[in-house]
Amino acid sequence: MLARLKNNEPLSQDDKLIIVLKGQMNHFHHLDVELRQETLALRQDTGQRFEIITSEINTLRQDTERRFEVITSEINTLRQDMDRRFEVIASGINTLRQDMDRRFETVTDEVKQLYRTINAQTWKMISAVGLIMLLGRVIENF
Predict the structure, then answer these.
(1) pLDDT at residue 12, rounded to an integer
(2) What pLDDT, on a 0 to 100 scale, did the predictor assign at position 132?
(3) How far, in Å, CA of 1 to CA of 61, rounded?
(4) For residues 34 and 48, is the Cβ–Cβ distance under 8 A?
(5) Which of 19, 79, 95, 102 has the most CB atoms around it within 10 Å of its CB?
(6) Are 128 and 122 in contact (CB under 8 A)?
(7) How many Cα atoms occupy the beta-carbon half-sphere of 61 within 13 Å?
């Protein structure tokens, strides 16, 4: 076929078809090579991007863990501070309770003393009334 072209001989339909098909095969071969190279480049670029994203995610994860550790530490500090404050409040309440118990004991003792005094005075009055009545009868009988 190349010899006929050099001699300027006419080509048959089959020869022309073969030339077109070989050209298309060559074109498809180059397209296939280019596509494979672009696919490989895309795969490498995607791999690099995934490595960068993975690195950034790991950095974010570590940063988040550090922040949670700080927050956990602050919560524990606040919890300890609240425990101390509640201990102070509980101590104050216990002191107030003891003071109120003493006051109630004092009031109870005073009420008991008042009851004893009233009781003694009542018996004295009953005795005095009885004595007055007895003297009144004695005077009547004379």
Answers:
(1) 85
(2) 93
(3) 69
(4) no
(5) 19
(6) no
(7) 6
CA dihedral 18→23→27→33, nearest 10 degrees, is 70
Tokens of 72: 């956990």
Tokens of 100: 């109120």
What's the pLDDT score for residue 38?
95
Q: What is the DSSP code string of 21-85?
A: HHHHHHHHHHHHHHHHHHHHHHHHHHHHHHHHHHHHHHHHHHHHHHHHHHHHHHHHHHHHHHHHH
What would the pLDDT profile of 54-92 be if each residue is shown by its tens digit?
Answer: 999 999 999 999 999 999 999 999 999 999 999 999 999
Query: Long-range contacts made by residues 77-83, C-beta under 8 angstroms, separation at least 24?
Result: none
Q: What is the pLDDT of residue 5?
A: 72
For residue 36, what pLDDT is reported? Answer: 95
pLDDT of residue 142 exceeding 80, the answer is: no
Residues 6+ apart with CB under 8 A from 84: none
Can you tell me the distance from the alpha carbon of 46 to that of 58, in angstroms, rounded to the nearest whole number?
18
Domain of residue 78, residue span? 2-141
Number of domains in the chain: 1
